[in-house]
Amino acid sequence: MIQRTLNLKPHIFYLIATMLILSSCGSRKYTVKTDTKASKAADAMANLKSKPLYRFITDWTGVRYRLGGLDKNGIDCSGFAFLLEKEIYGKTLPRISRDQANVVRSKDVNNLQEGDLLFFSFGGNNVDHVGVYLNNGFFVHASTTRGVIVDDLTLPAYQKVLVKSGSIN
Predict the structure, then answer these.
(1) Class for domain 35-168, per CATH?
(2) Where are the alpha helices (DSSP H) in 36-123?
(3) Is the pLDDT of residue 142 over 90?
């Protein structure tokens, strides 16, 4: 009987040691960097005043870009702004970004409010891209390369080509 008890002690020791090691792995706390672009975009979404706007954006996020598109099979930037303003704010915009810029009352970028429009010129002097301002320097738009996405307006690539911002007249 004593011999049998002595033989079990190493097995019990190994069992307890294994359980401690495995349980320590399960209790490790993982932290998320809060200064990443994705976390800041998520914060911008979480801080939206309009819950219908939040639902609209999440419903369209990731839809691919398609010039002239106006549905979930593909949408362009002006079509996205057109639908968002109509469905969320009940405002009618022209269909083309250049024409949309003409019906917007200019506003300093530092005074923008949720739902205001941002116009960009990537190809020269004419407006050729539009986005919708959210908050804290973030906006949503239909990117030609990434589809519908929440993006950071403070990025130099956007700062260099921003030509107008404001609200619908």
Answers:
(1) alpha beta
(2) 37-46, 51-60, 77-89, 97-102
(3) yes
Burial of 24 (0-12, 13-18, 19+ CB in 10 A): exposed
DSSP strand pairing (74-75 vs 147-152): unpaired
**Is 77 a catalytic site residue?**
yes
25 is catalytic: no
Global pTM value: 0.79
The β-bridge partners of 71 are: 74
**Which among 77, 81, 88, 140 is annotated as catalytic?**
77
> Is the pLDDT assigned to residue 6 strictly greater than 70?
no
**Choice among 79, 128, 129, 139 that is catalytic:** 129
